[in-house]
Write a structure and sequence with these properties.
This protein is of the alpha/beta class. The chain contains 24 helices and 7 strands.
């Protein structure tokens, strides 16, 4: 689909979602390529998003969720598939993609975060195109900038997890739906099928977007008095969900184990976390309301209602589904709605009509986003998924612990990792250690890859697993001056019998202790 230069700020003349904006300026196809790009609705927001997402992409410390991705992605394809039968099936497609990516580009922080950055950049272009189709050129440009200014967009654009791909799949699905409603055809509906399948393969919760899509299609068909599009939508959404069905079914069986820990939070608190800023959450919500109310008074009422339904309907549905034992109303799981809300906020900014006012509104939004943008680029920002609320846990600096071990390492040293595995402190420290520093985990009987799991298994009899290593490094995900007390009793007893603690070092959130064998 090509974008055309539009010189009017008025909404499209047609009255249905998916109707393209009229062209009142010169035919863009006759202009040089660079000028055509500059006039495209998506170009400047996407360029800004690329700069924002790329800024300091490799600087924040890798945190335990990202380390899980790296650990799984660097296993063999067979090991990944075997693990998915036990855990993390909902991330399976992403893990397999990252397996290929890390094989080609390595596992450095910037390298493993780059796919998410590219996904968010593409999502920005889709948001701008959706905004243009629904509300006009100015709204499309504004929507793209609103989306790129949201701190969590750039934050999860730097996350080695699948959330950016969920956002992209949701934005692409909405764009493809509008294109299919505008000019139905099997090829356009096939594209929508693939987008829906992409949503289901990376985030089952995000499939609630189809509820908003379904209501929007109903409204479109009722207004047009043509129902073929509804039949196409039902078939396409069913086909897309069918492709993702194995992941959906397996994920539902694993949900109790994987996400039962998520605490209940007030809806507005979660919404602040979704947008990564209290002030920006207020501003985007208010602009979305203005956008809806303003365009309801114009010739865009049907498009406005449909856009609002897509943005709003999944929220109460997910909230209602979270009244049981498992809470799905979680900030990271709701990120797929940010594109739709950015479109509505863009419509609210476009209601100002005059270019200086539109620019001023975007500058104000940019100013409101600065605290969140800075906070989410902090060294330990990637574990702060509850921002702007307080941190859920103390940050852990795997890189600091790795430097301590690297500085004192001697060939033949062993390693003991105590504490809950989900802190990923051993994989995290190994991630930052050079290849020639690789102490053996003396108590690990089977690795996570050997168990087709996210964590390994320790020896039942720790004393028998020791090989009389001259020195051992003890790593704990807490700060303590008595490192042996942070280990299971049998391990602590076996070590106390043969080793003395000769050094204890505290780093951010971690304890690194050096033990030396007696005699």
């Amino acid at each position: 689909m090509s974008d055309r230069a539009v010189t009017t700020d008025a909404p499209p003349a047609q009255t249905d979602v998916g109707s393209p904006s009229p062209t009142t300026g010169p035919d863009s196809r006759s202009l040089p390529l660079l000028r055509r790009l500059a006039l495209s609705v998506w170009f400047w927001p996407t360029a800004f998003a690329a700069l924002a997402v790329g800024w300091r992409i490799g600087s924040p410390e890798m945190w335990h969720d990202e380390l899980v991705t790296v650990d799984v992605a660097t296993r063999s394809t067979g090991q990944i598939i075997d693990m998915l039968a036990n855990v993390d099936a909902v991330h399976g497609a992403y893990y397999l993609f990252m397996h290929g990516w890390t094989t080609l580009f390595g596992t450095g922080p910037a390298a493993v975060r780059l796919p998410s950055a590219l996904a968010m950049i593409l999502a920005t272009a889709c948001v701008a195109l959706v905004g243009r189709r629904v509300f006009g050129q100015t709204a499309g440009v504004a929507a793209g900038f609103v989306f790129a200014l949201v701190p969590t967009v750039t934050r999860f654009g730097q996350e080695t997890r699948s959330y950016a791909f969920v956002v992209l799949a949701a934005a692409v699905a909405t764009l493809f739906l509008l294109r299919a409603l505008e000019r139905p055809g099997w090829l356009r509906w096939a594209a929508y099928v693939l987008a829906v399948a992409g949503i289901g393969l990376v985030n089952v919760v995000a499939l609630t977007l189809l509820l908003g899509h379904g209501v929007a299609v109903l409204l479109h068909c009722w207004r047009q008095r043509r129902w073929w599009s509804l039949a196409w939508f039902v078939l396409a959404s069913a086909a897309g969900a069918g492709i993702a069905a194995p992941v959906i079914l397996r994920g539902m069986k694993q949900a109790g184990r994987q996400i039962s820990w998520i605490p209940d939070s007030a809806p507005w608190t979660v919404w602040e976390q979704v947008l990564g800023s209290t002030l920006l959450a207020v501003a985007v919500t208010a602009l979305a309301v203005v956008g809806v109310l303003t365009h309801l008074r114009r010739d865009a009422a049907s498009r406005t209602v449909m856009a609002a339904v897509i943005a709003v309907l999944p929220l109460p549905v997910i909230l209602l589904a979270s009244t049981g034992d498992i809470n799905y109303f979680f900030s990271k799981y709701l990120l797929f709605l940010v594109p739709a809300w950015a479109v509505l906020a863009g419509a609210g900014i476009a209601a100002l009509r005059r270019a200086p006012l539109v620019a001023a509104a975007l500058v104000v939004l940019a100013a409101l986003s600065v605290p969140g943008q800075l906070a989410l680029r902090d060294e330990f920002s990637h574990g702060w998924y509850t921002y702007p609320q307080a941190r859920a846990f103390t940050p852990l600096s795997y890189s600091e612990a790795a430097r301590v071990i690297e500085a004192g390492y001697q060939p033949g040293d062993g390693l003991v990792a105590g504490g809950p595995w989900w802190w990923m402190h051993e994989p995290g420290v190994r991630y930052y250690l050079p290849d020639d520093v690789s102490p053996r985990n003396v108590f690990q009987q089977r690795s996570a890859a050997q168990r087709d799991e996210l964590f390994g298994a320790d020896c039942a009899n720790p004393a028998r697993c020791l090989r009389d290593e001259p020195r051992l490094w003890v790593l704990l995900p807490t700060v303590t001056d008595a490192p042996l007390t942070g280990l299971p009793k049998k391990q602590s007893a076996a070590l106390a019998e043969r080793y003395d603690v000769v050094r204890v070092t505290h780093v951010t959130g971690l304890t690194v202790a050096l033990l030396q064998r007696r005699g």
